[in-house]
Amino acid sequence: MKTKQVPIIITLAAGLITCIIGVVMHMETGQFVKTWGIVLISFYILGCVAKLVLDHNFKEEAEEATEEAAEGTEAEAGQGAEAEGEEAVSAEEVE
After folding, report:
1. To the nearest 10°, the Cα dihedral for 84, 85, 91, 95?
2. Beta strands in 1-95 (DSSP E)
3. pLDDT per residue over 33-64, tens digit each?
4. What is the pTM of this model?
5. 14 DSSP assignment
6. Each residue of 54-63: b (16+ CB within 10 Å) or e?
7. Cβ–Cβ contacts within 10 Å for residue 47, how many?
8. For labelling, which of 39, 51, 61, 76 has a CA lying 20 to 30 Å from the CA of 12?
């Protein structure tokens, strides 16, 4: 999964919400800029943490899927060899 944009999306959403709240509450420009800056920095850090958690979880799932696929391939190869052995025995019995 591509998680590169997660911090950016979270930061922009928080910035938009802060702008809307600032306009509705008729905040002064200086107070708004300070608040907006703090919100953007805070939510960027929060987004980076969320990205790390997502990357970690999806990495584990990908490793598990790879291991299961490898086990499935080994099991199929083993069953194929057994089936070939059974066909050889049945062919000998027919002769």
Report:
1. 150
2. none
3. 999 999 999 999 999 999 999 998 888 777 77
4. 0.62
5. H
6. eeeeeeeeee
7. 21
8. 61
Instruction: Please state, as a whole number, how many other Cβ atoms lie within 10 Å of the Cβ of residue 21.
Output: 14
Residues 10, 47 contacting (CB under 8 angstroms): yes
Q: What does each C-alpha distance from 34 to 31, 67, 72, 83 come to in angstroms?
A: 5, 50, 57, 73
**Both structure tokens of 50:** 């969320």
- Indicate the average pLDDT of the chain: 82
The dihedral through the CA atoms of 56, 62, 65, 66 has a sign that is: negative
What's the chain's Rg over C-alpha atoms?
29
Amino acid, single-letter form, for residue 70: A
- The tally of CA atoms less than 13 A away on the side-chain side of residue 15 is 12
Surface-to-core class of residue 92, CB atoms within 10 Å of its CB (0-12 exposed, 13-18 middle, 19+ buried): exposed
